[in-house]
Design brief:
By secondary structure, the chain is mostly beta strands. It has helices at 44-49, 72-77, 222-233, and strands at 38-42, 67-69, 86-88, 97-100, 103-104, 122-130, 143-148, 156-164, 183-197, 201-214. The strands form 3 sheets. It has a 5-stranded mixed beta sheet with strand order 1-6-7-4-5. A 3-stranded antiparallel beta sheet has the order 8-9-10, with no helix packed on it. A two-stranded antiparallel sheet has the order 2-3. Residues 75-83 and 235-242 have low confidence and may be disordered.
């Protein structure tokens, strides 16, 4: 090769082995961009696993940060104790709307459900604070859409028993009664689901019942009544009879 001259070289490169890697990353978004309502969903796992004292499935509504327990005094006036005494945005419980499988099941006086179902029969439900659809109109508070469970091709059943022994009750810290309540409760239930015609028709049934006996903690015994009468005797001629 001399100075000032161009030299052409023909070089052939062999193809090396190729390797491809495909990576798929799926991230759950914090909110549904297609949803215009403020909602919270309670799935079946939480309904089955979380404990509730009064066996009222509407108690799970309080898992939503948008819902708060109703005023206890207001709950007594509207007969909502143990039947969904909760409030959306500080509104009265009577402003709630409850739908059971798409059918209006709202008690307009209490804001709870007219149908008392076992939690074993509940699949999931959705809580809508505001921005609910047109079929939920008329509710000043929030809307609760409850979905019941359905059977499958596989038969499945549950049996359970909850026991509260009066021997394990403690004396209430506040109150006029100086003794512990001797009240026992037993709640038993069953649930069963399966096919009527495979791949077409299914059934699911659930039932439970509670039995209670003994003395309730709100009862005032004769000894307490005597103490009250002794205290009131010093004030005036007022007497309380048990």
């Amino acid at each position: 090769m001399a100075v000032g001259r161009n030299t052409h070289l023909l070089i052939k490169l062999a193809l090396a082995g190729t390797q491809e890697t495909v990576s798929v990353n799926a991230e759950q978004t914090a909110f549904d961009t297609s949803q215009t309502s403020s909602v919270a969903n309670i799935d079946r796992d939480r309904v089955e696993e979380l404990p509730i004292a009064n066996r009222n499935y509407l108690t799970f509504v309080l898992l939503s940060p948008q819902v708060a327990p109703a005023n206890p005094a207001l709950a007594q006036q509207t007969l909502t104790q143990g039947n969904g005494a909760f409030s959306f945005g500080g509104l009265r419980p009577s402003g709630n709307a409850v739908y059971l499988d798409g059918v209006d099941d709202d008690d307009e006086y209490s804001g709870g459900s007219r149908t008392q179902l076992s939690p074993e029969a509940i699949s999931d439900f959705q809580i809508v604070n505001h921005g609910f659809s047109a079929e939920s109109g008329g509710a000043a508070g929030g809307s609760i859409d409850v979905q019941t469970r359905s059977g499958s091709n596989q038969r499945h059943g549950d049996a359970f028993l909850f026991v509260q022994s009066g021997a394990l009750n403690a004396t209430p810290p506040l109150g006029l009664y100086p003794y512990k309540p001797d009240e026992s409760r037993f709640r038993a239930g069953v649930a069963l689901g399966g096919p009527i015609q495979r791949d077409k028709t299914f059934y699911y049934v659930a039932a439970e019942q509670e039995l209670a006996h003994g003395e309730d903690s709100n009862d005032i015994g004769p000894a307490t009544v005597s103490q009250i009468n002794s205290a009131l005797h010093q004030v005036g001629p007022l007497k309380i009879s048990p």
